[in-house]
Recover the amino acids of this structure.
């Protein structure tokens, strides 16, 4: 039983400390306020190699270079928005994990809600159609001509 609890604690420690291993000790700034700002910025910037991780979580060499660049810009006196603008001008908006709301990416922001509304509308229409078909009494019976034709088809070998 002790092994099981040790394993759980060990696993949770790995999960919790996983992102801390991406940042090397030589990258950490001496000023804790600047370091906190750098970590906040890095958490919102995409690793251009991994593409699904922030540069704060990635251990790719390019992510390290970007983390260092962010810290250099902060030490130079740039504001958070100036650092973001600099990186966007250099790498494009793809570097942002959460893209900015602007007219040129309005489709990106609107696609999710529009798809949800279209799906709900389709579901509503399908349920309505099914209910109206059920209240109509089901399929209509065949006419005498249709029944005679069906009987002829069934008799043929």
């Amino acid at each position: 039983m002790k092994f099981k609890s040790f394993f759980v604690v060990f696993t949770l420690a790995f999960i919790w400390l996983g992102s801390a291993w991406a940042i090397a000790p030589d990258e950490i700034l001496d000023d804790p306020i600047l370091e906190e700002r750098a970590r906040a910025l890095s958490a919102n910037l995409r690793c251009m190699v991994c593409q699904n991780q922030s540069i704060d979580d990635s251990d790719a060499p390019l992510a390290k270079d970007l983390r260092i660049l962010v810290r250099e810009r902060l030490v130079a006196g740039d504001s958070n928005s100036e650092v973001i603008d600099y990186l966007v001008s250099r790498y494009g908006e793809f570097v942002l994990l959460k893209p900015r709301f602007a007219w040129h990416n309005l489709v990106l922001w609107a696609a999710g809600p529009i798809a949800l509304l279209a799906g709900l509308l389709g579901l509503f229409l399908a349920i309505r159609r099914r209910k109206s078909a059920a209240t109509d009494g089901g399929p209509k019976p065949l006419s005498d001509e249709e029944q005679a034709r069906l009987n002829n088809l069934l008799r043929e070998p």
The two ends are 74 Å apart (CA to CA). The chain has six helices and no strands.
